[in-house]
């Protein structure tokens, strides 16, 4: 069995471009940037940025075009695909990620207000309110 699976989390580097195929199905193209932080041989911290071309079809394409913009964080699951075409007698190639699943990332930088509290006060914006007192392990029923 062969596997062609890509999982990426990054930020859009440009606004999505929505187009309609001759069949009437919508397609959106955009690119995202991902960063990798590592230490080189001398122990110095280095950062490397990669850029990925993303293609989304159908209803998800409409949603991406409507709500996403340059700088938006996004989680992508999909597969790699390489297209080729000829222009002016020269062959061109483009490798892109065809997204099966697109999830929007968190908005803001962690200080968004919600009901007078910041996200960090309510547990990092997860929607779960944790008790402020310590939990005693003897009180857990299992």
Keywords:
single chain, 142 residues, mainly beta, OB fold (Dihydrolipoamide Acetyltransferase, E2P), five-stranded mixed barrel, two-stranded antiparallel sheet, 1 helix, 6% helix
Explain what this protein looks like in three dimensions:
The protein has 1 helix and 8 strands, in the order ββββαββββ. It has 142 residues and is mainly β. It has a single domain, classed as Nucleic acid-binding proteins (OB fold (Dihydrolipoamide Acetyltransferase, E2P)). The strands form 2 sheets. It has a 5-stranded mixed barrel. The chain is extended, with a radius of gyration of 21 Å. The two termini are 42 Å apart. Mean pLDDT is 83; it is low at 109-126.
Topology readout:
Blueprint: E1 6-12, E2 17-20, E3 26-39, E4 45-57, H1 59-67, E5 73-87, E6 90-104, E7 113-114, E8 117-118
Parallel strand pairs: 4-6
Antiparallel strand pairs: 1-3, 1-5, 2-3, 3-4, 5-6, 7-8
For CATH, the homologous superfamily is named as Nucleic acid-binding proteins
Coarse shape: extended
User: Which regions have little confidence, pLDDT < 50, spanning 5+ residues?
Assistant: 109-126
As laid out across the biggest beta sheet, the strand order is 1-3-4-6-5
Number of strands: 8
Discrete helix count: 1
Binned strand content: over 45%
Q: How many structural domains are formed by the residues?
A: 1
Major sheet: 5 strands, mixed, barrel
Structural class: mainly beta
Under CATH, the topology can be stated as OB fold (Dihydrolipoamide Acetyltransferase, E2P)
What is the terminal-to-terminal distance?
Answer: 42 Å
- The whole-number mean of residue pLDDT values reads 83
CATH class: Mainly Beta
Query: Could you say what the CATH architecture is?
Result: Beta Barrel
Instruction: Report the radius of gyration as a whole number of Å.
Output: 21 Å
Helix-strand pattern: EEEEHEEEE
User: What is the percent of helical residues?
Assistant: under 10%
């Amino acid at each position: 069995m062969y596997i062609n699976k890509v999982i990426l989390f990054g930020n859009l580097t440009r606004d999505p471009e929505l187009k309609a195929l001759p069949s009437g199905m919508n397609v959106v193209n955009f690119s995202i940037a991902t960063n990798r932080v590592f230490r080189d041989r001398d122990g110095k911290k280095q950062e490397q940025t990669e850029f990925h071309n993303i293609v989304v079809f159908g209803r998800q394409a409409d949603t991406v075009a409507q709500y996403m913009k340059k700088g938006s964080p996004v989680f992508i699951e999909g597969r790699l695909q390489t297209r080729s075409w000829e222009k002016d007698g020269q062959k061109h190639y483009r490798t892109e990620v065809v997204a099966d699943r697109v999830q929007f990332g968190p908005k803001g930088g962690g200080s968004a207000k919600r009901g007078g509290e910041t996200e960090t006060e309510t547990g990092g914006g997860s929607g779960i309110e944790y008790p402020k007192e310590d939990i005693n392990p003897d009180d857990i029923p299992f």
